[in-house]
Specification:
The complex is a heterodimer of chains A (368) and B (110). Helix content of chain A is 59%, strand content 5%. With 368 residues, chain A is mainly alpha-helical. Chain B has one domain. In chain B, a hairpin with a 4-residue loop joins strand 1 and strand 2. Chain B is elongated, with a radius of gyration of 20 Å. Classes of the chains: A mainly alpha (368), B alpha+beta (110). Chains A and B meet through helix 3, helix 4, helix 5, strand 4 and helix 6 of A and strand 1, strand 2 and strand 3 of B.
Chain lengths: 368, 110
């Protein structure tokens, strides 16, 4: 169903402009290009996952249906939903640009093709959200793409750690929402949520590639300093998500979710998945873990309550609260990590294709 | 007097360092911009001219942007002048060493 009428003329809401703040990245492409992905015998795994991407499981998935034509003027938490779309579109768009930059700079044909196909997926997701915003009479202000764009530099290993986590936590968030709405369809405030299951499989698959990339470079996982970076990024991702979602409590409530229970489920799932590659993860089952996280949320709420005040006393209180959040984060970082063992290691997602070994039958490298 | 001179020297050194850090060199050229903003795909890729490379701390400005009101019909590829503001050696080195980490966007998934 491709030819859609322009719903923006029918909406009662005034034209709104979406504020995209996409990230543009740069990294040491030469260092990435110099990685020897053959040295640990993983070349065949890379070829296999390339064929998975080429198969393009979701080629026909992002087609809208008549449900998208409904009138969403009176949908609950409309503004929060629009903001949620903006953030999601920004993330997908940024991923698309990052992967495309990799394609431009890398020489290995397998790696180039993989990044090309992941860029395709992210751009496709961004387009789907883009159109959903247009339905809600929200126009994208594309001029932000033209203005001076600062390029954020990440060392290659930070790209691998963070993008891997981004993809896996993205999967964990989508699938938890999808499973919840499957059980409680009365909370589906927009049909886009029904697309989440297949959508998040793309995220999961991208994460599989980054997991493979890190496994091909054991230094990234074995060196003590790198293990500290892994814990740092896990913590940074969890804390950022927890505090952000606490601020958007009403959005999750509209979906019938308790943000706190939802976030804890997401963190547990992501932490479990990341044992597939990380030798250490965070001790999320220790009761002190979420006690610290809850304390940070409480400090953040107090700081938010002071946000409009600029008097010296309020400034001092805000500084004290930020320091308290920092101290809690440090306490979390110092907690004994969970060591990955053969018993607690992630065994893969049920029903999701895993690497079948070098003797696999050849697959048709195109979707039906 | 000695203390005052030392303080003045330190301040002058600080200001010089800051000016060095903030200094930018402008390079101009013509790039090819690929833009698609629609249901099927949303992306913007910029092919810079040979010799123009983005390094840590640099910023890029695309001078021309077509009037597309948020949506395109298919991918548009067009030539546009671009301005590349090259960061100072000091800024580039510091950014490269510290690898400024911005983790907020990592969790901005739905």
């Amino acid at each position: 169903m491709e030819a859609m009428p322009d719903l923006s003329v029918t909406t009662r809401h005034a034209l709104q402009e979406a504020v995209l703040t996409p990230r543009f990245y740069t990294t040491d492409f030469k260092a990435i290009d110099a990685l020897d992905i053959d040295k640990n015998g993983l070349r065949d795994e890379f070829e296999w996952i390339k064929a998975e991407f080429e198969y393009d499981y979701n080629k026909g998935h992002f087609k809208r249906n008549e449900e998208f034509l409904a009138d969403f003027d009176d949908m609950p938490v409309r503004q929060l939903f629009v903001e949620f779309l903006e953030r999601s579109c920004t993330a997908e768009f940024s991923g698309c640009v990052l992967y495309a930059e990799m394609v431009k700079h890398l020489k290995d044909p397998t790696m180039r093709q993989i990044f090309q196909l992941m860029s395709r997926d992210e751009g496709r997701h961004a387009g789907f959200i883009n159109r959903t915003m247009a339905d809600l009479n929200v126009a994208l202000d594309l001029s932000v793409l033209q203005k001076r764009k600062k390029y954020t530099f990440f060392q290659p290993k930070f790209i691998f750690y963070t993008v891997y986590l981004s993809e896996k936590i993205g999967y964990s968030r989508y699938i938890n929402i999808y499973r919840h709405l499957e059980k409680t369809p009365q909370h589906i405030i927009h049909p886009i949520f029904k697309w989440f299951e297949e959508w998040c499989n793309d995220e999961y698959r991208h994460g599989e590639f980054f997991s493979m990339l890190m496994r091909s470079q054991p230094d990234l996982l074995d060196k003590p300093s790198n293990r500290r970076w892994i814990r740092f990024f896990l913590l940074a991702v969890y804390v950022t998500m927890y505090i952000n979602d606490a601020r958007r409590e009403s959005f999750y409530k509209a979906l019938g979710l308790d943000w706190r229970a939802y976030d804890q489920d997401v963190i547990r799932l992501c932490n479990n998945i990341s044992t597939q590659v990380y030798p250490v993860t965070l001790p999320v089952d220790d009761p002190r873990f979420f006690a610290h996280m809850d304390a940070m949320v409480a400090y953040d709420r107090q700081a938010e309550a002071l946000a409009t005040r600029n008097d010296p006393l309020a400034q001092a209180q805000k500084a004290r609260l930020r320091a308290a959040i920092g101290m809690r984060m440090f306490a979390l970082f110092r907690m004994e990590p969970r060591i990955t063992t053969p018993e607690n290691k992630w065994k893969g997602l049920q029903g999701f294709p895993n690497y079948p070994g070098p003797d696999r039958p050849l697959r048709v490298a195109a979707a039906d | 007097m000695k203390k005052l001179s030392a303080l003045a020297l330190a301040a002058a050194a600080g200001v010089s360092l800051w000016q060095w850090f903030e200094r930018e060199t402008l390079r101009e050229g013509e790039a090819t911009v690929h833009l698609q903003s629609e249901h099927e795909h949303f992306h913007l890729h910029v092919d810079l001219p040979p010799g123009m490379e983005i390094e840590p701390g640099d910023t890029l400005e695309i001078v021309d942007m077509p009037q597309v009101h948020g949506q395109t019909h298919g991918e548009m590829s067009y030539r546009s002048p671009v301005k590349l503001f090259k960061a100072s050696w000091l800024r580039r080195t510091l950014i490269k060493r510290s690898s400024l980490v911005e983790v907020n966007e990592l969790v901005e998934h739905p």
